[in-house]
């Protein structure tokens, strides 16, 4: 009946010791005990089996370019933008493809099988677009890669940006991007939001906009984005990324803004690693964290997902491709350490992000795509705490990557010979496990 059976799996929703039967590239059965056998069976031994991680906000054209043409000495957003401006004229399609494919290799080992990447369209050569379209085709058997046409230097501010963005979309880029707070004036920023939403509506495309990535509480382009979303009937298809200015906004204004965002069904994409690194740079003490209002947005019913944003590029010298690292930082920044809080954080790395990217067939139900990861952890809470090894990464029913369990030999008389850190957390009655 099945090509592969995963046995004794714990699921993110709290079900434990269930079997997952896979037939072809689909999940065919999820049950307490599957009596049938399969040519290949994997005993998860009570480990967490999850749908794959999803990164809805990344910059694959810049990834792994750290040190080119020089290092970001200040570590600031503006120096990173200046560095990218220096590097951009020297980019070649071959180098872009090579770096992106290397990153995709790393992503697979981390169980990251869905990525939305912004692609800078500010260079009229559009070499970045050509390269990432090639990468999208090459990685399609193992990663779903969405591309966003991103006018990094401003849609109106940069000469030729309007034409370049339209050409990128004509070439097959999937999503309309923007950066309204980088325009010369607030009114230009608002006009860019209207123009880009109009393009998306006419072309039937979603929008993912870098929005208010600043500490300025008067940067309020998310309000305009929500209004234009409703105006053009794009509810549920618009993402506001970063939204860091909300961290500094007046509470009364936010009490009006969040319901407007909820009415527009805005998808919210904070980037915890990058937001904490780049925001608050003009502060002495107290120093702002820079992360948007994650808890309040979630409580208002908005779909919140987290992005990795950068890995070893002009803006961020760190990063690993591990979305659990992103979630781990979010727990601390958003001060969401409660049991239910952490479950929501895990959802923001998986099901919420899949909703943002409009991924079909995602999940662990019968009929879903057989895309799964087995982690060396008991449940989502432990996965976020430990950032554990991915024991198996499965794409369309085939194991495409795996890492042995991480255990340590202990040489102390009278103590265990092997220590496995994933077995150390107490089982709490409220864990549902």
Report a brief summary of the structure:
Residues 40-400 form the Amidohydrolase domain. By secondary structure, the protein is of the alpha/beta class. The protein contains 13 helices and 18 strands.
How do the strands of the widest beta sheet line up side by side? 6-7-8-9-10-11-12-13
The helix/strand class is alpha/beta
**Proportion of residues in β-strands:** 15-25%
* Alpha plus pi helix count: 13
User: Mind telling me the CATH superfamily name of the largest domain?
Assistant: Metal-dependent hydrolases
Q: What is the mean pLDDT?
A: 96
- What is the CA-atom radius of gyration, in angstroms? 22 Å
Largest sheet: 8 strands, parallel
Helix content: 25-40%
CATH architectural arrangement of the largest domain: Alpha-Beta Barrel
